[in-house]
TrEMBL record:
Residues 31-50 are annotated as: Disordered. Keywords: Iron, Metal-binding, Oxidoreductase. PANTHER family: 2-AMINOETHANETHIOL DIOXYGENASE, CYSTEINE DIOXYGENASE. One of its GO terms (molecular function) is cysteine dioxygenase activity. This is cysteine dioxygenase. It comes from Urochloa decumbens. It holds the Pfam family PCO_ADO. Belongs to the cysteine dioxygenase family.
Amino acid sequence: MGRSAAAAEGANVAGPKWLRGEDLLKEATAALSGKKRKRGAEDGAPRRVAKRRRTTTLLVRVPMAAMAVPPLQRLVDACRAVFCGGGGSRAPPAPDIVRRICGLMDKVGPDDVELWEDLGFFLNTNAAGRQNPPIITCKNILQCKDFTIAVFFIPLRAVMPLHDHPGMTVFSKVLTGSAHVEGYDWVRRPRVFRAGGSRTLAEKVLDREFTPASGTWVLFPESGGNMHRFVAGEDAHCAFLDVIAPPYSLAEQRTCTYYKDSPCELCRCALSAGLTEEQRSGGRLAWLREVPMPRDLRVVNLPYRGPTTIA
C-alpha cells in the first residue's frame, strides 16, 4: 500500500496494512460493562462507577502474503526476479521461466491495466475518417534496462509492419479485439541463404489469429517468429500486452529493423541445398529485404495512469 493510500484510510503507518486493536478493545469492554450493569439493576444492587483505566493502542500487523497482490504487480515482481541482472543477455530464458511469465500474463486482463480509461482517447484519435493512416499508440507500464512492459493499441484493420526484435524474447497477449500475426525466422540450416538486393531467406513459422482466449505466445531471438507483423481485426480495435526482455537499446545494438517480404521461387540448386520438404512446400519460404521505417507508420506514446506498480 502506498503512502497516499495509507493516509486516505487513516492509517498512521505506510507499507503493510495495520489494524487498530483499540476499537476491538473498546467494543469488548462496552459489551462486558453492559452485562454487569444489567445484572446489577435486576438485583437492586447500587451501581458502581468503574474507574477509568488507561488503554493502550494495539497494532496488529497483517503479513503482506495475506494481502491480495494484483496480477500486474505479480507480473512485475516475476520479471524483476528473472530478468534483472542479466546484463542484456541475448540467451532465451529457460523453459520454466517462460511458463512462469506466460502463466502470469494470462491472468492480466484489460481492467488490470485500466485499459478502458485510455480507450476513449484511442477511439477519438482514430475516429472514422479523422486519421489516415491510423495512429498506433503505446503505453509503457514499466521500463528499465532489463525489460519493458507495455500495452499497444492498434486500430481496426491497421497494420504493425514487419519488424524484428534482435536478441530479444517477447511475450505477447491480446487484451481486447483480435489480431492476425505472421512471423518469420531466418533459414540458418544448412546455411544462411542470401540473394541480390540484400535479401535473406526466411521461413514463415507463425500465421494465425489471436484473441484474448488464445493466451500468451512467445518469440525468441532465433525462433518463434522474431520478425513479425500484426494486422488488427475487422470488427474491433486491438490492444495487446507485451513483455520484452531485454528491450531495444541503441547502445547495446538492439535496434528495430523493418522488412519487406516477397515470395521465394527456389532454383534447382536450392532444392538440393539441404532444405526440408516442409520448407520447400506450402509457401513457407520468403525473401526478406531491409527497408526504412514506413512513412505511414505513426506511433504515439501515452502516459501510463493505471495502478501503481512497485518496481
